[in-house]
């Protein structure tokens, strides 16, 4: 059964290759979407090549709605997007995938049903299909090579939907079982190095020592060190001192 999370439907209009239908299903499920509708697939339905390509997303194919006309696929929808890279001579809003999925989120949140139309691989949606849409999604691709593979277009749109649905930080760090070093731990590391470097005569001449120590501490503060990093740096210095004592 489709999941209960509010979401839009992806409509593949007259898709030609079973492999692309399967890849589209996989792309949808990668981003938590599982409502697929199919308009007269060229090679019939079900399609074993689609199942093979879906690789774990076969449930979407089993539950896909099969209809004969595009209008039947969007009959229950209050708002429809159509994906196309070509100008169609129709007066419609043209939006990026990001903006389209923002709009979809708002409309679904208001209780409306939303669908996105994806055209067949050879030439895309026909004007009769696009006439059913309320807005056009246009991907800002290279104008000299604007054609996107069906599954690629589905994946890109599904990704933008996921971005609007889940709060994902733009950057994160895998801590690998440790934590960031605290201020006191960084201070102890700085003291350890200052003491050993002082013994080694590094801070010379004496009148420049305060500034050199300040620069060293400033260097430590710029480093985003973990507790494991700090322990390793303490260990490096201790081992160097032991080696010097043994060799000296």
What features would you describe in this structure?
The chain is α/β, with parallel strands linked by helices. The protein folds into two domains: 9-165, Alpha/beta knot (3-Layer(aba) Sandwich), CATH 3.40.1280.10; 183-247. Helix content is 46%, strand content 11%. A seven-stranded parallel β-sheet has the order 3-2-1-6-4-7-5. Helix 1 (18-30) links the parallel strand 1 and strand 2. The chain is elongated and about 85 Å long. The mean pLDDT is 91.
The Cα radius of gyration reads 29 Å
How many β-strand stretches? 7
* CATH class descriptor of the largest domain: Alpha Beta
Distance between termini? 75 Å
CATH structural architecture of the largest domain: 3-Layer(aba) Sandwich
Taking pLDDT < 50 over at least 5 consecutive residues as the criterion, the unreliable ranges are none
Helix content: 40-55%
* Mean pLDDT, all residues: 91
Tally of helical runs: 10
Described by strand count, sense and barrel closure, the largest sheet is:
7 strands, parallel
In terms of DSSP E residues, the strand content is 5-15%
The topology string of helices and strands comes to EHEHHEHEEHEHEHHHH
Q: Rough shape?
A: elongated
Strand order of the largest sheet: 3-2-1-6-4-7-5
Number of domains: 2
Name the CATH superfamily classification of the largest domain.
SPOUT methyltransferase, trefoil knot domain
What is the CATH topology descriptor of the largest domain? Alpha/beta knot
Structural class: alpha/beta
């Amino acid at each position: 059964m489709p999941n209960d999370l509010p979401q839009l439907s992806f409509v593949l209009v007259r898709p030609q290759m079973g492999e692309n239908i399967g890849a589209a299903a996989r792309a949808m499920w990668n981003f938590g979407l599982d409502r697929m509708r199919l308009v007269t697939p060229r090679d019939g339905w079900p399609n074993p090549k689609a199942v093979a390509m879906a690789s774990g997303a076969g449930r979407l194919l089993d539950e896909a709605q099969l209809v004969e006309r595009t209008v039947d696929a969007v009959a229950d929808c209050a708002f429809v997007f159509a994906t196309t890279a070509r100008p169609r001579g129709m007066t419609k809003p043209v939006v990026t995938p990001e903006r389209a999925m923002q709009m979809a989120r708002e409309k679904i949140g208001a209780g409306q049903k939303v669908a996105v139309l994806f055209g067949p691989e050879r030439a895309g949606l026909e004007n009769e299909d696009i006439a059913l849409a309320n807005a056009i999604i246009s991907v800002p691709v290279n104008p000299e090579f604007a054609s996107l593979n069906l599954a690629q277009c589905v994946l890109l749109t599904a990704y933008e939907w996921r971005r609007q649905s889940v709060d994902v930080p733009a950057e994160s760090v895998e801590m690998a079982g440790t934590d960031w070093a605290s201020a006191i731990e960084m201070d102890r590391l700085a003291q350890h190095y200052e003491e050993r470097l002082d013994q080694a005569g590094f801070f010379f001449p004496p009148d420049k020592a305060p500034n050199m120590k300040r620069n060293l501490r400033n260097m430590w503060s710029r480093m985003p060190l973990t507790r494991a990093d700090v322990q390793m740096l303490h260990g490096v210095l201790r081992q160097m001192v032991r080696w010097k004592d043994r060799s000296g």
